Every structure is written in C-alpha cells, then in structure tokens.
Model the fold of this input.
Amino acid sequence: MKNIRAYLSTLLIAALVITSLPVAAAPAASPSTDLVSTQSVLANDSGLADRERIHQLLNRADIQDELVKQGVDLDEVEARVAALSDAEAQQMANQLEELPAGAGVIGALFAVFVILLVTDILGLTDVYPFTR
Amino acid sequence: MATIYRFQNARLAGVLLLLCLLSACASTPSLRDTTEQQLPRQSELADVPFYAQTEYQCGPAALAMVLTHQGVDTDVETLIPQVFIPGREGSVQPEMLATVRRHERLALPIRGTFDDLLKHLAAGDPVVVMQNLSLPAFPMWHYAVAIGYNLDDDSITLRSGEIERHTIAFSRFDATWARTDRWGFVVAKPGTLPEGITAHNALTGISAYEELHGPKATLSSWQAMVERYPGHALAQFALGNAYYADEQPDKALSAFQSATRNDPEMGAAWLNIGLLQLQQNQPDAARQALTQAASIEGSWQARAQELLGQR
Done:
C-alpha cells in the first residue's frame, strides 16, 4: 500500500507540474477545446478548487490503507474506494473513525441493559423487541 | 421507611426525567395536512425480499434487499466483502451508497422528513434508513429497509435485523431515526428517477454514478432528471456533457443553450457552447458565446478570456 501511495503521489505531482506548464510552453495556436465537466462545476459550486480535488485523489490512497488496516479484503479494497464519489471520499478520509457504522441488533452491555429496557418501554429506543 | 421509599421514587423519577431530556421525548411525528390527505391510509411493499442479518451484517442485508428488489442478482454473502468493515464491526454511509453504484444502480438520498419517507413508500420505493436503536450515549447504529406504513394505527413496517415484518409505532421509529438526522436513500435503475427526489439529491446521486461509470452510461439518467426538472440549469448542463460524450454534439449544444436560458449567469455553460462551436468550425458563433463566458465573474472567466485572446 505504501508503494501505491508513493507511486500515486509521484504521478500526481508530475501531472500537476505538466498541466501547469502548457500555458507557457504550448503553441498559442491550439488551446485545448475540452469541455468543462459536470463534476468540476459541481465541485466549484461547493467551493472546491482544483488543488483540493487533487488532494482528494491522494486521500483515496489513505482511505485504502485505512480500510486494509480495518480488515477489508485486499482484493476488494481498490474497487470499494473507486466507487466513492469525490465528496464521499473526502468524508471517509476526514472522519472514518467518527462515521457511525451500522451494525445492527446485537446484545447491549449489561450495565446499560436496565436503562435501555426502560427507554424501550417508554418508546424512545428499539433495542429489545420483547418489550412490545 | 416511608421517607426512604419516597426518596427512591424521587430518584427514579429524576432518572427518567433526565433520560427523557437527554433523548428528546418520543412523540408521534405529525404529518403535514396535505401529506395526510394525499397518502393512501396504508401501504406495504410486500414484494421486497427479506434477507436476515447475521452478526453485524445489517448493512449488507439491507443492500441485498433493495438491490434484488431492483433486479440485481446478488446476496448478502457477495455484499459483505464489498461494504462491511471488520475493524468497525459495521458499514458506513458513504460505502452503502457507493456499493449500490457498483451494482449499476443509482443511490439517491431522500429528504430527511417523515412526510418524505412515507411518500416514497406510497410511491412504491422501499427506503434504506439508518437508525440509532439505542441512546446517543451508547449508540447502536442500524440499517433497516422501510417497506410500509399504516396511518390508522400510526405504525411503520421495516425489514430489520432478523425480523421480516418489524412493525413499530411512528413515534418509536422516529425517535431512533432522528438520531441519524433521518438519513435514508432509495435505489433506482439508471434512466429512472423515483418520485419525490429533490433536484439537489438527484444531482448528487447521478453525478456520483457518472464519476464511476462515465457520462455515456449516465446519459439516460440525466435525461430523466431534465424531464423531471426542465428548468434546472445544472441538469441541462450535465445532460449536454453526456450527449457530448455520446457523440451527439448537436443535442449537446442545445442542452447547453437550455442551461444558459435557465441561468444566463452560468459561465461554464457559455464556455462549453463556445468550445463546442469552435470544434464545429463556427468561429463567429463561438466568439459570441465566449464573450458571454468572459464577461461573467467566476472560475471560467479566465479560460474564456484566454480563448478569445488566442483567436
């Protein structure tokens, strides 16, 4: 994973340098006629500069590392991270630890059993189906 | 003795009051009058298949239900390595949405209100909801699939955990749902847009699909969005880019032009019109569009000015 990151970083730095050159180096007669993409307009609307988008690409390598550390399969991790949109990737990179992870109906600690039993009966929670 | 009992009672009452305050007391969410009138009294999407969760796999189970309901050939076992995070013993929201897209379906967030939830159910779309079944202090995050409701007894029916038809009171459900800021999403085939999805959420969901599958595969979804929101400049703009990727430059041009009609201040649309007309060897028309783009302050101004200067 370290290798992928190092490789990706180099690649991106190179890309950054190259894309910032043409203004000076490219022949003036042939400006790029690539259209403005929908995603760059959306990113622009939400206040993201190009530099931040590149930063997000770097983040994806971090997310991969982190997911592998959390036990995600090596074969799957790349496809999983690739499926995230830029905005989602940013969310994952910034706050993976704090994001709530839906796990479901599993036994609660005994210490809180009584409290949850009461709140269940009050209709505030939905932990023990037998309270209904 | 009597005083001790009284003290204990007071303490119990205090604890209950505190709990009540901490978790905001459960009250039946009130629907807007118009919603109440429009909705059928009850509705249940009985054809949503049920997959029981094992251990911590409510995320994969919920996805299996809505994806197979939308015709995807998958199951819980396939989805576990795609969305479950062993270290967290659960699945996180961004990956729930991303996994839907991997199976070539749109993941569209819903507006987090009780009215919207019921409207989606009435329109025939099961909703994946995230709840905190427990109290904020000891969270128990959970994904379930809402499939039905009954306005006569104020109850909602979920496919949840190991229970195929988990029917609970609106108030109890809303107390658990409110703890995730009422987070939920629906799943749709590309080229369709479920009733009641806001323009902003459609844009987010379809654009995320495009990031993964490319503009060609997303063309039909942009068409569906423009049909629903014809006055939305950004949707027209996105449609233009998808037509362009699909090698239909004339349709692309007319979509970009619709975008500028709906929002004359949209520099990116003027710029794309100009670029497209340059490619089509219409320098005069291009100059007009680029002049417009160059006159609008913002991120696209510089490029338009540069193109004008170089010609």
